Amino acid sequence: MRTIVHLSDLHFGRVDYAVRDVVVSTVQALQPNAVVVSGDLTQRARSHQFQEARQFLDSLPRPQIVVPGNHDVPLYNFFARFGRPLDRYRRFITDDMQPFYADDEIAIIGINTARSLTTKYGRINESQIAGARERLCSIDNNVTKIVVTHHPFDLPENHDEDDLLGRAQLAMTVLAECGADVLLAGHLHIGHTGHTAVRYKIAGHSALVVSAGTATSTRHRGEANSFNVIRINHPHIQVERMIWQPEAGAFTPAAAENFQFSESGWKPVPAEAAAGFVFADESEVITGDN
Ligand SMILES: [Fe+2]
Ligand SMILES: [Fe+2]
Description:
Layout: E1 2-7, H1 17-30, E2 34-38, H2 47-58, E3 64-67, H3 78-83, H4 87-92, E4 100-102, E5 106-110, H5 126-136, E6 144-148, H6 168-177, E7 182-185, E8 192-195, H7 196-200, E9 208-211, E10 226-233, E11 236-245, E12 250-253, E13 257-262, E14 265-269, H8 271-274
Parallel strand pairs: 1-2, 2-3, 5-6, 6-7, 7-9
Antiparallel strand pairs: 1-10, 4-5, 8-9, 10-11, 11-12, 11-13, 13-14
Helix pairs in contact: 5-6
The protein binds fe (ii) ion (2 copies).
One fe (ii) ion (FE2) binds at residues 9, 11, 40, 69, 71, 187, 189.
């Protein structure tokens, strides 16, 4: 059993500090096995914004898998943008552009999809796809394989297709070969869970595509601040969205979505059928003695 907290689109520079503080305390209380941050740590890639993002990360549990977003590339400074676009990200956040974590139940790989030549669109390149193949294909399929990008592999219905990750089709073919289970992303500022089977139609494979809303920023797209808690106990996965409730000053869970692995990939399971799924270690079961 593993618990992953999935945060995205922090946008330091446009942060609601009251929300930020409750994100920190809520995530600390969840005691996750890993924290994922899927990009846009800052609003304008300025040093003081990255410093605040660094302090925020330092207050959260580890290990952390962090990738940059389009907002982490300087927009107005021409030399920084094209000469050394992720210089500040590398200095304050991490120099590791393909972060990786694995244990005997989960493997998480982060891929940088932010690019200098566009202000908003993202893409993945062939060497990144090869790197993901090298790491994920060698891992046993009983380990849940998770890929983190800023730009998403799938979109909510009727969403602008421009927000889709560039070259996603090429990447998806390889990720399917390696048995990728979950694709985590941000960028939309909308919480959404989809399946690759609908868009990519690769026989015998369907990964979950989980987008997170903005955890801490005031850049809402018609949704309150949110983040995801993903619980994994193979062959079951639960995705729970934590939604900010301003009156209560707290994040509360929305109805959880449950999934089970099958011959054709990850399939949704109705709540009644999922009631028997176990997402707690036996050692953590409270007996009533304490
Ligand atoms: Fe964003
Ligand atoms: Fe973005």
